[in-house]
Specification:
The chain is an alpha+beta fold. It has a single domain (4-150), classed as Regulatory factor, effector binding domain (Multidrug-efflux Transporter 1 Regulator Bmrr, Chain A, Alpha-Beta Barrel), CATH 3.20.80. It has helices at 24-40, 104-117; strands at 4-8, 11-19, 48-52, 65-71, 83-87, 90-99, 127-130, 143-150. The longest helix has 17 residues, at 24-40. It is globular and about 45 Å long. InterPro entries: AraC_E-bd (IPR010499), GyrI-like (IPR029442), Reg_factor_effector_dom_sf (IPR011256), SmbC-like (IPR050908).
């Protein structure tokens, strides 16, 4: 996989948490829960993030946590069930992903495998970053995002 090393700034986010097996259910969470909430609170046309809080290879599927996030200003106050958090600044390997939701886990697996084999992967928050003008093809389900993994200095 081709990737770039980028220094990314800290980002303040509002998020809703999904808990359960990773995979197709996360796409449904975005569609049925997060996007309607985002629209209701005027948070469309902003960069969004998907943050896996647990490693599905070591955490029981029913206990895996995933946060669907949107960038917000320092003044933004979240109303429950939303919470405020941040994505830490740091040095990240960033690769472009284009495909369907079903292809995301394999892409993550390949990217992690490559960075571990190269000795570059570091501990920290890994996330998907979706552009402010994010769009999914309604026929094919194909979309574009960046996969970001912390790397050693």
């Amino acid at each position: 996989m081709k990737y770039e090393i980028k220094e990314l700034p800290e980002v303040r986010v509002a998020y809703l948490r999904y808990k359960g097996p990773f995979g197709a259910a996360i796409g449904e969470f975005w569609k049925e829960v997060f996007t309607p909430w985002q629209k209701a609170y005027g948070l469309m046309d902003k960069v969004t993030y998907g943050v896996a809080q647990d490693d599905p290879s070591t955490t029981p599927a029913s206990e895996c946590r995933y946060d669907a996030c949107v960038e917000v200003s320092a003044e933004y106050e979240a109303k429950p069930p939303a919470q405020i958090g941040s994505i830490p600044a740091g040095r990240y390997a960033v690769t472009q992903f284009t495909g369907t939701g079903d292809q995301v886990p394999a892409a993550w697996g390949e990217f992690f495998g490559q960075l571990h084999a190269e000795g570059k992967a570091d501990a920290g928050v890994c996330f998907e970053r979706y552009p402010a003008d994010y769009a999914m093809d309604p026929v094919t389900g194909v979309f574009t995002a960046e996969l970001c993994i912390p790397v050693k200095a």
